[in-house]
Amino acid sequence: MNRRTVLKTLGFAATLPLTSVARASEAYASRPIRLVVPYPPGGVTDVAARLAGEVLTARYGQPVVVENRPGASGLIGQQVVASSAPDGYTLIMGGLGGNVLPPVTVKGLPLDVPKAFVPIAQIAEFINVLVVSKDSPVTNVQEFVALAKSKGAGAMSYGSNGIGTSAHLTTEFFAQRTGLKMEHVPYKGSGELNIDVANGNLDFSINNLPAVLPLVKKGSLKAIAVTSTYRSKQLPDTPTFQESGIADFDVTSWLGVYAPAALPPALAQELGDVIAKGMSAPEMRKRLETAGFEPQPRGAKEFAALNQRELERWGEIARRANVVIPFGKG
């Protein structure tokens, strides 16, 4: 997603029906709120943060300063927020890729991420897609599995945007569910990876929808199945893995807002309610969908439960796949 698309998606004015949300603390908010994005500007996390900022400004009348603090795969920004006062004036955007996968895959991580933050609100999720070259004979998941088994263990190759990423571990989960053994080729990003799949240098990848959608629309990649339990509005003819015969296969990447762990529970609940309600507004849902997201607003309690479930699930997947990354080597 380029900067121009992001700016068009964000807009500059959104009227949100937030006045009915009860506040747990009348003292909040009396000054600007800082929302840290631990990645560079222009990406999906940055987009989600700016939309969340609009919701908070509409409710509290205070500006939300989105501060990009990239570095060390998000750790720099996380450390900044973890050491901030737990007063609700410093928040951070996070999600599966920053708050769940590193704690279960990275050995020697210098921050205990699950203990450093309290989940506030989920904003949205985006699905992953199994894609192959347009020239591949495969047209569905069962054909893919049959082809992989006929070639033998390790003959099929797939790429991801790095060891321990959601794309990598989602593919390992697929392998575990089907009994397949395939060769993993890590890349530094999705650009070269997508080109190699399109050219047939790799057999397939399971990648985030926003990363592959342009090439699917162009016809260079063929979408075989999506990892969610529902079909994507942007790929309505592409079935889910469950529809394709892979039972209990439900994987999405997701984004949400977190705060330092010692934030008072009443304020965490209030902020979660405000953000979830704001993100549920029809105009905001439309803007999320335009940016490639699937709107999935959740308040603090539900979001905390999701984080715990995902830590347990992805921890087990990583252990079974023997994915252990020494800190600084990923």
UniProtKB/TrEMBL annotation:
The answer, when asked if Signal is one of the entry's keywords, is: yes
**Residue span of the signal peptide, if any?**
1-24
InterPro entries given in the database record: BUG, Bug_dom1
Q: Which SUPFAM superfamilies match?
A: Periplasmic binding protein-like II
Query: Which CDD domains does this UniProt record tie to the protein?
Result: PBP2_Bug_TTT (cd07012)
Alphabetic keyword roster: Signal
One Pfam family here: TctC
Q: What family is this protein classified in?
A: Belongs to the UPF0065 (bug) family.
What's the name of the protein? ABC transporter substrate-binding protein
Which species is this record about? Bordetella genomosp. 13
Highest lineage ranks of the organism?
A: Bacteria, Pseudomonadati, Pseudomonadota, Betaproteobacteria, Burkholderiales
